[in-house]
């Protein structure tokens, strides 16, 4: 009788890939986790209980068929594991690296609930697809039949690229427009290399290009090309711009030099450190933490990216101010732990009241306590009167989240409907807007969210686009 390949969580403990020592990893922008060896990937995948109701799958925005590709990995059928993984996820090697698994699949693993330690789903997912690239199993898209219709996609982030991939698989002609010089959006310029090395993103961009996706880079819609011109050139348009407008800070001295936006800081770092670009603001020190006391304001994943980047740039000290406590921060607990190991100091229950100096030399900080719950059910931070103190700072980074830009105004298209939050009004799942042939997906619809949700939106939207194109074709044929 064949030996049971799964259900080994009772005898085999949870084991993550080896994490480089903090003293070593804080000196470079390389990824901090090593790759699983084949035997270790099989062993860890074999811990899956193959439960009847896989909560890991139901809590994944893409509903990835996780139990099946774990079983295939455990039994050495790695190419099949890759094919099952790729069937529901356009970029599994990216999600394996940057998804907050502790809040999604791994956080809902049944064996985790029973005290055995979750299956290391993200690390196995990364291993499967990295192996697929090495073995040449990942090929450019080759549709069975080309179609004459074309779709324009505005935004080369994860949502736009996922839509481009699915449309090309259906044979549709695709052009992607983006304001940056490289595609990938926040995958390229927002997320640091120690979480997502840039050759991983560039490899996918190349695969899409080789599969027939046309990229128009350095294109600011509304300036270089109007929205109406793009609509006129295509049978359908998908808006996938993301949200890039940084939430701002008030208070005395908030306009001082040395107070910068997280997106500007991270983009400069990624350009200089990961691509070797010449970045004047980085070279001048304006967007460089080297030799500075750094204070980052915010508690989300962007704040974690900023504090860990500042450490690697050679800051003399890095502190993170967050107005709630550790248990209530929105960022990944795993990332917070990594940051602490690397030397970041977290000041919980603190908020900026103002700033001193020109350029800035201190943040006026007030201490907080958690009061009654607000409308969302989270305890509302309240100021403790008379608790102010000065926190020395040469560089202050605002990582308070992102809001949508005013697209109807920027694009000269007032009929493009937006919500009271400035996000585009679009149908749930389909992405259809009130404008014929115009769809919207990702953060520009749902607000700042996760990469995995943008991928899900892109894939769902393509189903609606194809349905609508087929309907038009049927009407034309009549």
TrEMBL record:
Keyword field contains Iron-sulfur: yes
GO MF terms, alphabetically ordered: 4 iron, 4 sulfur cluster binding; glutamate synthase (NADPH) activity; metal ion binding
Keyword annotations of the record: 4Fe-4S, Iron, Iron-sulfur, Metal-binding, Oxidoreductase
EC nos: 1.4.1.13
Residue ranges annotated for the Dihydroprymidine dehydrogenase domain, each copy included: 26-136
Every FAD/NAD(P)-binding domain range: 151-458
Enzyme class, UniProt record, top EC level: oxidoreductase
Top-level lineage group: Bacteria
Leader sequence residues: none
Protein's UniProt name: Glutamate synthase small chain
Lineage of source species: Bacteria, Pseudomonadati, Pseudomonadota, Alphaproteobacteria, Rhodobacterales
């Amino acid at each position: 009788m064949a030996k049971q390949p799964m259900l080994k969580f009772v005898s085999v403990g949870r084991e993550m890939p080896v994490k480089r020592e903090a003293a070593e990893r804080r000196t470079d922008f390389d990824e901090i986790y090593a790759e699983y060896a084949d035997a270790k990937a099989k062993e860890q995948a074999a811990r899956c209980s193959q439960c009847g109701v896989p909560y890991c799958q139901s809590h994944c925005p893409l509903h990835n068929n996780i139990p099946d590709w774990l079983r295939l990995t455990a039994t050495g059928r790695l190419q099949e594991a890759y094919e099952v993984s790729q069937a529901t996820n356009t970029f599994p090697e990216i999600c394996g690296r940057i998804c907050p698994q502790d809040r999604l699949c791994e956080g809902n693993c049944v064996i985790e609930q029973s005290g055995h330690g979750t299956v290391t789903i993200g690390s196995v997912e990364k291993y499967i697809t990295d192996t697929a690239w090495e073995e040449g199993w990942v090929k450019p898209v080759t549709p069975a039949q080309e179609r004459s219709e074309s779709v324009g996609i505005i935004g080369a982030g994860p949502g736009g690229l996922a839509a481009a991939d699915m449309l090309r698989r259906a044979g549709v002609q695709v052009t992607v427009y983006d304001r940056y010089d490289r595609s990938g959006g926040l995958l390229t310029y927002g997320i640091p290399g120690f979480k997502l090395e840039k050759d991983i993103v560039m490899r996918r961009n190349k695969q899409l290009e080789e599969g027939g996706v046309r990229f128009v880079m350095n294109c600011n819609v509304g300036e270089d090309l109007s929205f109406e011109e793009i609509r006129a050139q295509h049978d359908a348009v998908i808006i996938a711009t993301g949200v890039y407008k940084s939430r701002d800070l008030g208070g005395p001295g908030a306009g001082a030099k040395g107070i910068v936006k997280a997106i500007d800081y991270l983009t400069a770092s990624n350009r200089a450190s990961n691509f070797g670009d010449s970045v004047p603001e980085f070279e001048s020190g304006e967007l460089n933490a080297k030799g500075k006391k750094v204070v980052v304001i915010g508690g989300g994943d962007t704040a974690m990216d900023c504090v860990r980047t500042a450490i690697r740039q050679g800051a003399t000290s890095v502190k993170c101010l967050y107005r709630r406590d550790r248990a209530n921060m929105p960022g990944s607990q795993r990332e917070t732990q990594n940051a602490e190991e690397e030397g970041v100091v977290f000041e919980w229950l603190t908020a900026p009241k103002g700033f001193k100096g020109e350029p800035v030399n201190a943040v006026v900080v007030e201490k907080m306590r958690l009061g009654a719950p607000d409308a969302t059910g989270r305890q509302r931070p309240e100021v403790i009167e008379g608790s102010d103190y000065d926190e020395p700072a040469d560089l202050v980074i605002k990582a308070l989240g992102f809001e949508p830009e005013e697209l109807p105004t920027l694009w000269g298209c007032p009929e493009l409907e937006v919500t009271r939050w400035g996000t585009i009004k679009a149908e749930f799942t389909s992405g259809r807007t009130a404008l014929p042939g115009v769809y919207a997906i990702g953060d520009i619809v749902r607000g700042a969210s996760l990469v995995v949700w943008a991928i899900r939106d892109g894939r769902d939207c393509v189903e609606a686009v194809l349905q609508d194109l087929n309907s038009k074709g049927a009407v034309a044929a009549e």
